[in-house]
Amino acid sequence: MEEPRKTFSTSDGCVSDVVTEKYLVRSQESASHVQLACCGRCCAFPLDGNQLCVWDVEGPSHQLLTLHGHCQSVTALAFGNRVNPLLLCSGALDCVMVWNLDACRKKLLQGLTPRATVLGTLLGKVLCLRFGPDDHAVAVGAGNRILVRDTEDQSVLGELEGHVGPVTAVEFCPWQADVVISVSEDRSFKVWDLSRESLLYSSSVLTACPLLSLYLEAGSKQLVTGSADGQLWIFSLAERHRYRLVAHMDLRKRREAFFTRRLKSRLCTLPGERQLRSTNEPEREEVEATLPILSFGHCDLSPVLNSECGLASCASQNSRHLWIGSTAGLFMLNLANFDLEAVLQYKDFRSLSIRVAGSCAVMSGAHEHKAVCLLTSLFGNEIAVLDIDVVALLRSQGSLAAGRSLSVLASSCVSPTSPLYCGTVKGKRTKPVSQTQPAVRSVIKDQPLVFHSKVRSSGYTAAPCVNMFAPKTNNRKDGKRPSKCRNSYRCKDYPWENSIPTKPGQQVTVAHKPAAVCCIQYSGDGRGLACGLANHLSLVFDASLTGTPTVFPGHDAAVSTICWSHDQKWLLSVAQDGALRVWSRRRAELLLLLGKDVFPRPVHSAQFYFVDAFLLLSSGPDVRLLQYHLDTCRDELKRYKPRSSFKPVHRLSVASGADLTSLSAVNGFHSHIVLAAARDRSLEVFDLNAGCSAAVIAEAHSRPVHQICQNQGSPFAAQQSPAYDLFLTTATGDGVRLWDLRTLRCERRFEGHPSRCYPCGVAFSPCGRFVACGAEDRHAYVYEMGSSTFSHRLPGHTDTVTRVAFSPSAAQLVTAILDGKLQLFHAE
Q1: Is residue 12 a contact partner of residue 270, using CB atoms and an 8 Å limit?
Q2: CA of 535: how far to CAs of 367, 508, 676, 772, in Å?
Q3: pLDDT in tens, 677-709
Q4: Separation in Å, CA 758 to CA 248, 754, 801
Q5: Neighbours of 717 (CB within 10 A)
Q6: pLDDT tens-digit profile of 426-485?
Q7: Of the candidates 119, 43, 108, 51, which has an alpha carbon nearest to the alpha carbon of residue 78?
Q8: Rg of the Cα trace of the chain?
Q9: Domain assignment of residue 530, yes or no
């Protein structure tokens, strides 16, 4: 037995503050491929084959508890769930035993030999063990059977048969005591009803390699399983989800993406360790062809994030994390966004005794800032216990970055040097000269006989006036607004209860010939729905999709962007020909045209900004801010001569120089933040109050982002202030991601909808509780913000759902279909 020792850095000789090798044992027999046991207080491992060693993490480092009882080599170990008394179950080819560790320590102090309770003998090769929630039962995976034994009277509670390969992991369901879940080398998982000894569900074959590990997340009711080829699956075990697949990922690809993000974000490497290699360099020391997932461990980061004041948002503090133990290292997975928060590779610490693990068990320690990892060597006989500082690990890899002050809500007034300043003083301009200097004599010039733009009728064709005066006798004030004002704006609150629109309603075809609907948007009052078509037209429907729509012709290509002004008077449209047009909503006529010759590059997307004070658009790699003037008083005799104008105010370019693919900013209230997505898969945040770039998020998706959707709320629904800092991004083939502007982190990922080839849109609900998105399987999907799997799947479509939009004033959802139809959904 060797004394505990710490790992030292090979570069400068300093003690590493991330990982410490607390204990190292060399056994006479290899303990590789043995189910190890690790809890927040103790670690248990086999020594010399048939001996059991229990090391107390809280006690002195040299104090070990050695237990003798097995004649054959121990193949599986498991701790109980209760702390007092703490039970340990050990399985071997000869028998399965349960040890009371507190009683064993007392007997050793008395000079007696500890004894265990034998649950069964000659059960076969035991590969996995697991205690029930109350420690009254133990599930034993022996061969392709699962034997459940009572720990008190050693009776048989059940025998579950159905796997065609050896059972590699078994778990009791935390929220259903009679449910047992198992995985096997037959590459499937099964759900059992222990009370009836029957099979509830059997999955299909998930992969070509055996499933090795299993974990149940009680908070989200999810099942996590990993295979020998590094594949990881997450299934939902909620009753109405019917074992739905939530996410599937490759651990090796997640690791490469993690290192790529670190490299592009210019983060520091682990302190005192060697430089991490670039993902493009060949890894000469790489041993494993894959990353087998050996085990899972509970990881609670709430105390860590709470102690780091200002470094994490509420969404980050409530997220769930999971330790993944593999042959090459430990990985910390965020179960909300399915990204790796930290990677600890054994080979990066050259003083560690074990570089390639054969078995692994990891668990958060007694102090939540620490984690304990128990390793056995794959090629040797070493057994090591590692102490990991979670805070130091997260800091060294940039997961706990310095807090930022970015927010969509403006926290200060507009600076006089800001490009937005001219929009704030627009209402304070001096009056024209003809009004401010009345004393100056006006010179009457020669004019034609008829010089008025509009000539009034002489009255000969009008009906004679009979009543000269007719007073209003039914005028009621009662402190209320006139009926005209009251009907022009709905002051009804958004329905919070039963606000999920799932019932199909009206469906309309937007054109006589099939034309795809490229974009849709509701007006701010919820009365109008604008949509852009692939046949060069823009239409405005009534919110109920009834009646004849208003047509806005004029574009030469498919309309890719449609946008309402804040006061619902104007409509903006951008087509794929690069032209931008601003229309009068009431008269359906063109007021402003920015053609292809105005900017060096075609306009890709545009919108009204800063409560209609500016036009914000993207052209190539640039974000341009324009001040505009719309003249509605047209000369009837000179209609061909437009009098509307615009003036460039400011231009910003993305750091990478790549073309922009999406642009978003809040127009419902004054905000200084503009979000832009580039073709190099990056997101950039611009602060127009400072007139510069504020932050860059590298590798936001695996493909370029085609839509950014901000939570802009609604005049009919109130939300908390932090909710407005959330925004969505979506990319073809990479799902939907939820981001928090305050931390610039992905807080959740939604991947349950198929969108592999066609860019499908996404939208926030006015209440901020739901996210809707289109899909290629002729359905629309609705997610709850607190869940990674969809809550509703909306049928009734005849083709790919390209765009979705929530009504701001009612519980309604409109979906756009690729074959040129609009489908309305409303609440039950």
Answers
A1: no
A2: 63, 16, 27, 26
A3: 999 999 999 999 999 999 999 889 999 999 999
A4: 20, 10, 9
A5: 18
A6: 544 434 333 333 443 444 445 454 444 444 444 434 444 434 334 443 444 444 444 444
A7: 43
A8: 34
A9: yes
CATH number of the domain where residue 559 is located: 2.130.10.10
Q: In angstroms, rounded to a whole number, what is the distance separating the alpha carbons of residues 38 and 500?
A: 44
pLDDT value at position 233? 96
Question: With bands split at pLDDT 50, 70 and 90, how would you rate the model's confidence at 124?
Answer: confident
**What distance in Å separates the CA atoms of residue 312 and residue 391, rounded to the nearest whole number?**
13
Q: Are strands 614-619 and 503-509 parallel, antiparallel or unpaired?
A: unpaired
68-106 as b/e: b if 16+ CB within 10 A: ebbeebbbbbbbbbeeeebbbbbbbbbbbbbbbbeebee
Number of separate domains in the chain: 1
Beta bridge partner(s), residue 130: 139
558 to each of 568, 578, 610, how far by Cα in Å? 23, 10, 27
Pairing of β 357-364 and β 370-377: antiparallel
Comparing C-alpha atoms, which of 497, 490, 414 is closest to residue 689?
414
Q: Is residue 63 situated within a structural domain?
A: no
Q: 687 pairs with which residues across the strands?
A: 673, 692
Residues 566-601 as b or e (16 or more Cβ within 10 Å = b): bebebbbbbbbbbbbbbbbbeeeebbbebeeebbee
Q: How many residues does the chain have?
A: 828
The DSSP symbol for 274 reads P
Can you tell me whether residue 301 is helix, strand or coil? coil
Q: Which residues lie across from 397 on neighbouring strands?
A: none
Confidence of residue 367 (pLDDT cuts 50, 70, 90): low
Q: Which tokens belong to 95?
A: 């028998």
Burial class (CB in 10 A: 0-12, 13-18, 19+), 302: middle
pLDDT value of position 412: 84
The rounded distance, in Å, linking the Cα atoms of 66 and 54 is 6
Cβ neighbors of 541 (< 8 A, separation 6 or more) are 508, 528, 529, 530, 531, 547, 549, 822
pLDDT at 309: 43
What's the rounded Cα separation, in Å, for the pair 353 and 361? 16
Contact 776, 756 (CB under 8 A): yes
Full 3-state SS string of 396-418: HCCCCCCCCCCCCCCCCCCCCCC
- Return the biggest CA–CA distance within the chain: 125
Output 279 or 381, whichever has higher pLDDT: 381
> Is the dihedral angle over the CA atoms 445, 450, 453, 457 positive or is it negative?
positive
pLDDT above 50: residue 278: no
Distance CA 682, CA 695 (A): 11
Residue 642 resides in a domain? no
127-149 exposure pattern, b = at least 16 Cβ within 10 A, e = fewer: bbbbbbeebebbbbbbbbbbbbb
For residue 642, the model assigns a pLDDT of 67
Least confident of 332-341, 428-437, 634-643, 757-766: 428-437
Question: Domain span at residue 557?
Answer: 503-588+596-610+671-682+703-826
Cα atoms found within 13 Å of the Cα of residue 589, Cβ hemisphere only:
11
> Does 747 fall in a domain?
yes
Q: Give the pLDDT confidence score for residue 60 in this predicted structure.
A: 66
Contact criterion met (CB below 8 Å) for 308 and 400:
yes
Q: Closest by alpha carbon to 724, among 787, 805, 668?
A: 668
pLDDT classification of 266: cutoffs 50, 70, 90: low
From the list 653, 654, 681, 658, the residue with the least C-alpha distance to 260 is: 681
- Residue 677: name the closest of 644, 650, 654, 646 by CA: 654
